[in-house]
């Protein structure tokens, strides 16, 4: 794999990294002001940067062996480079930079490889002295990259998780106020994450469509966001499609709030995860038959308390809550049963 020195002929000035994330509970709630419960995964994206003395940015993605060039402030033609282009533009890079990217966060798996790239790039600009921002401001800037340069109207969860979460606790985040707390996993448990091998593409999927549907539901209900609906019975006046979409968001917020109650058992937490998957599959309709099959295999294992798809859906990864010390064994067993291109990501 080509290094920064191999590609650009000099050493980088700075290097910065950011992790991917897995969302344990609270899916498709963050763009409606709701509650989420992600954690960071061990896999990270690393960005190396250095000034090049020209009026062009050059970006090289080592894992793809692809390169792109574009002017400061401009977007990139190559889709892989748009995340970097946006971060450079919004992060204050007005002179040409060389940027080298390498990552072991699975791409297209719903584990926020894009947020990790955005946050890592912005952290690098901060280290270079081109950007003055705290970790929350970096997350907010990274979200703008998605909106303005990538064309995905993402919520704030992925960027906040990549910027603030760690791998040992859950980040309980109110996506409206950005208030947050670190919460432990249920006692005696660990997480298992498996990439189904079914790739998903947010900008090409129904993500923006789902967002528009719940925004319309909020408008019809006369609320700022579905976060403000506490009783699912309030949704009954919506037409059937919007009712299902809104019911997922409202019930998912209630599940997250229940999941962080002190002393909740692993079994009860797992049941919330199972209910979340059913809601994503049936009401929000963002699952996939192969993902459903993988979730069902996990839910059938005696060492697993609960399992669900994670991320925006339409393919990607699943997350399960397993007995401590058993996740790797269960993951290997289930991937063998599932076959195909599934791969265990965590642990």
TrEMBL record:
Gene3D superfamilies: 3.30.230.10, GHMP kinase, C-terminal domain (3.30.70.890). GO terms for molecular function: galactokinase activity. Keywords: ATP-binding, Carbohydrate metabolism, Galactose metabolism, Kinase, Nucleotide-binding, Transferase. Residues 3-49 form the Galactokinase N-terminal domain. The keyword ATP-binding applies. Its EC number is 2.7.1.6. The keyword Chloroplast does not apply. It is an enzyme of class 2 (transferase). Residues 266-338 form the GHMP kinase C-terminal domain. Residues 90-164 form the GHMP kinase N-terminal domain. It holds the Pfam family GHMP_kinases_C. It comes from the Bacteria. Belongs to the GHMP kinase family. GalK subfamily. This is Galactokinase. It comes from Deinococcus navajonensis.
């Amino acid at each position: 794999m080509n290094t920064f020195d191999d590609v650009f002929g000099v050493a980088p000035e700075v290097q910065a990294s950011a992790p991917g994330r897995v969302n344990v509970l609270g899916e498709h709630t963050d763009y409606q002001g709701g509650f989420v419960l992600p954690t960071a995964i061990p896999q990270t994206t690393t960005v190396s940067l250095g000034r090049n003395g020209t009026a062009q940015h050059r970006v090289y993605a080592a894992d793809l062996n692809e390169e792109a060039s574009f002017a400061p402030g401009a977007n990139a033609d190559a889709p892989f480079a748009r995340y970097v282009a946006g971060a450079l533009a919004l992060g204050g890079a007005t002179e040409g930079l060389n940027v080298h990217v390498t990552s072991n966060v699975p791409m297209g798996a719903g584990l926020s490889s894009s947020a990790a790239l955005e946050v890592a790039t912005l952290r690098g600009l901060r280290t270079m002295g081109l950007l003055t921002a705290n970790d929350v401001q970096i997350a907010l800037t990274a979200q703008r990259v998605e909106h303005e340069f990538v064309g995905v109207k993402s919520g704030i969860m992925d960027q906040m998780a990549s910027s603030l979460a760690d791998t040992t606790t859950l980040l309980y985040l109110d996506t409206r106020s950005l208030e947050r707390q670190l919460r432990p996993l249920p006692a005696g448990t660990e997480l298992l994450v498996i990439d189904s091998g079914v790739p998903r593409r947010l900008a090409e999927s129904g993500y923006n469509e789902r967002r528009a549907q719940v925004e319309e539901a909020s408008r019809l209900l006369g609320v700022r966001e579905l976060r403000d609906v506490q009783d699912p019975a309030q949704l009954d006046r919506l037409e059937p499609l919007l009712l299902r979409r809104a019911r997922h968001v409202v019930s998912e917020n209630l599940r997250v709030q229940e999941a962080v109650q002190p002393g909740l058992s692993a079994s009860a937490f797992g049941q919330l995860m199972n209910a979340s998957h059913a809601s994503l599959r049936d009401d929000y309709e963002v699952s996939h038959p192969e993902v459903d099959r993988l979730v069902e295999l996990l839910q059938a294992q005696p060492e697993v308390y609960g399992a669900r798809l994670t991320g925006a859906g339409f393919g990607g990864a699943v997350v399960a809550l397993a007995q401590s010390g058993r996740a790797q064994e269960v993951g290997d067993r289930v991937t063998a049963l599932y076959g195909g291109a599934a791969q265990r990501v965590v642990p």
